[in-house]
Write a structure and sequence with these properties.
This protein is an alpha/beta fold. The chain is built from eight helices and eleven strands. About 40% of the residues lie in helices and about 25% in strands. A hairpin with a 2-residue loop joins strand 4 and strand 5. The N and C termini lie far apart (about 75 Å).
Length: about 260
């Protein structure tokens, strides 16, 4: 359907909804086009005999116009149904990250890593897919025909309790213990809550993945299969632990105050 026909369909629809008391300015406001544009289309519709004027800018549809409107509506409905089918076809294409170089047409296995879908030809899992568009290792690729269940175990949390400023803050932290935890959990998401915890992360040259809405963010990350290491300042730990308990997320709390190691 041509763009002009779509605009005329909209104008006829506005007229049939409000006839005969509808002005060109009302149509212009409803459709988001200029009054001059509406006027041009009105002249064309009058010339075709689709509408007629009752004077003072009042318009009604003719029988011919009503038949044309019904035909256009049917055509437009078919057009929308076609687009809808394409949308659902597109939804069958999913993005994934290439675990190694992957080519178009390859059969791959799917798995979750750090909350993101990965595809591999060598890491075998219970879920498979066909590659629509491949790519190099680490690139986003497109997969379809997903079969099987993508296994995703709930992540676990290590809470590193950072001393508040009144207890020495970042100057009273066992940095070696934090580094050891991070080294043993290299794939974990890192969260930071509180000013002192942020300073500690900066001293460790760490850029936290989660800094805002931290408790909720931790839970969401765990639900996507991610493990989380979180640096939480002082009594804020209690709030985080309660939310973890409420959401049945497994966790371990380590006090990383230097004087208690």
């Amino acid at each position: 359907m041509k763009k002009r026909n779509i605009t005329e369909l909209q104008i006829l629809s506005e007229i049939v909804r409000k006839q005969p008391h509808i002005k060109q300015k009302e149509i212009s406001d409803a459709l988001g086009i200029t009054v001059q544009g509406v006027s041009e289309h009105i002249r064309n519709l009058l010339k075709k005999g689709y509408i007629k004027s009752r004077g003072r800018g009042e318009y009604i549809l003719t029988d011919k116009g009503m038949r044309v409107l019904k035909t256009w509506i049917s055509q437009f409905k078919n057009y929308l149904e076609e687009i809808n089918r394409e949308i659902y076809r597109y939804k069958d294409i999913w993005p994934a990250i290439a675990y190694e170089d992957i080519e178009d047409g390859d059969k791959v296995y799917l798995f979750m890593k750090k909350g993101l879908l990965h595809a591999s030809k060598t890491v075998k899992t219970s879920s498979t897919a066909k590659v629509v568009e491949g790519g190099k290792k680490g690139e986003d690729i497109a997969v379809t025909n997903i079969e099987g269940i993508i296994e995703m175990n709930k992540g676990k949390v290590i809470v590193l309790k950072i001393p508040p400023r009144i207890s020495g803050g970042s100057r009273n932290v066992n940095y070696d213990l934090i580094r050891k935890v991070l080294d043993n959990n290299k794939d974990a998401i890192v969260a930071s809550m509180g000013t002192v915890s942020y300073v500690v992360s900066q001293k460790l040259n760490i850029k936290p993945d989660i800094r805002f809405a931290v408790p909720e963010g931790i839970v969401k990350a765990c639900e996507r299969g991610c493990d989380v290491v979180c640096l939480i300042t002082g009594k804020m730990t209690e709030k985080v632990v309660k939310i973890l308990d409420d959401n049945r997320v497994k966790y371990t709390v380590l006090d990383v105050t230097k004087s208690s190691d």
